[in-house]
Design a protein that fits this description.
The chain is of the alpha/beta class and 345 residues long. The protein contains 13 helices and 16 strands.
């Protein structure tokens, strides 16, 4: 089969690989139909994720059709159309029983990281009964690809951890796909203001279309000063960091109001300074989280009910054979206007 392979920092290729086989009773092998590229994949290619070794097939999102199942799989049969969760969960270990599927002792974020992922013609899914979701008949399968990762990530790690509330003031630093997913789902809670911060004018325009009340172009003005001006010098109740670089996190430190919450979503590859000399007395909370996908069933219902349209995040389509071009397009979003790209298998 064809598969997109990480070959070490800065190196990648489309290779021929063996079709995966059942290794454990709870496994399923899924024939991929659609997948996508995540900002985390770009972090891997930079060498920011040491758990992902060279030779790994990347990708942790997508949907497909069950091809084979192990003898322990009871919830799915060959031929079922399924959504693949970015998090594999046994459902039995201490962390799973606490709802922290991201820290499953035999799962978590392993797809496209510690085991081969979804940017291929086939993928093996461990713990299939609790790591796949049936796709309802007639559903927009392309839209549901956005539920593999970015929508639950933006919602759980940003909105829920950030305690977004009615009437609150929210700033989202980073208007990429994850930041925009946080923007879309923050509106479930009717905050009074949502301020988007980014360097990319195109993404800020998209953010306004998606519901941002104000935008700040960090390339044209000091983002912290601009946010403080917009909030009358008070700062924001929730600051969501959706980039994963030191400057964006420090911006969140500089704009958080007393009693507020900084919710980190970004994947950080280097240390960040925490300015406790200013923040120790401010009654703030700082949260970190790897998405647990506990909200995926709810988000599925929300999409099915027409309350949330994930297709708004999709800007480009490619075939698997053109995945190198897809990475170029996604990795140079400032020039291409890319948000999420769909890879057709």
């Amino acid at each position: 089969m064809k598969a997109f392979v990480y070959q070490g920092p800065g190196a990648k290729a489309l290779e021929d690989r063996p079709v995966p086989v059942i290794q454990s009773p709870g496994d399923a092998v899924v024939r991929m139909i659609k997948t996508t590229i995540c900002g985390t994949d770009l972090h891997i290619l930079k060498g920011d994720v040491p758990t992902c070794a060279p030779g790994r097939i990347l990708g942790h999102e997508g949907m497909g059709v069950v091809d084979k199942i192990g003898p322990g799989v009871t919830a799915f049969q060959p031929g079922d159309h399924v959504l693949i969760s970015c998090i594999s969960a046994c459902g039995k270990c201490e962390y799973c029983r606490r709802g922290m599927y991201s820290h499953c002792t035999t799962g978590g974020w392993i797809l496209g990281n510690e085991i081969d992922g979804t940017q291929a013609e086939y993928v093996r899914i461990p713990h299939a009964d609790t790591s796949l979701y049936p796709i309802p008949a007639g559903a927009d399968e392309e839209a549901l690809v956005m539920l593999s990762d970015i929508l639950p990530t933006g919602f759980e790690c940003g909105v829920l951890n950030g305690k977004v509330a009615p009437g609150a003031t929210v700033a989202i630093v980073g208007a990429g796909p994850i930041g925009l997913a946080a923007l879309l789902t923050a509106q479930f809670y009717s905050p009074a203001a949502i301020i988007m911060v980014d360097f990319d004018a195109n993404r800020l325009t998209v953010a306004e279309r998606f519901g941002a009340t104000s935008t700040v172009n960090a390339g044209q003005e000091n983002p912290a000063e601009a946010v403080m001006t917009l909030t009358g010098g008070r700062g924001v109740d929730t600051a969501i960091e959706a980039v994963g670089v030191p400057a964006s996190f420090i911006t969140c430190e500089n704009i958080i109001a007393p009693g507020g919450t900084i919710a980190n979503v970004g994947v950080h590859g280097m240390k960040v300074d925490l300015h406790l000399e200013r923040l120790w007395s401010q009654n703030i909370a700082i949260t970190t989280r790897l998405v647990d996908t506990v909200t995926t069933p709810m988000l599925l219902k929300t999409v099915q009910a027409g309350k949330l349209d994930p297709t708004r995040l999709i800007t480009h389509h490619f075939l698997l054979g053109d995945i190198l071009d897809a990475y170029e397009t996604f990795g140079h979003a400032a020039n291409t206007g890319a948000l999420k790209v769909i890879i057709e298998i």
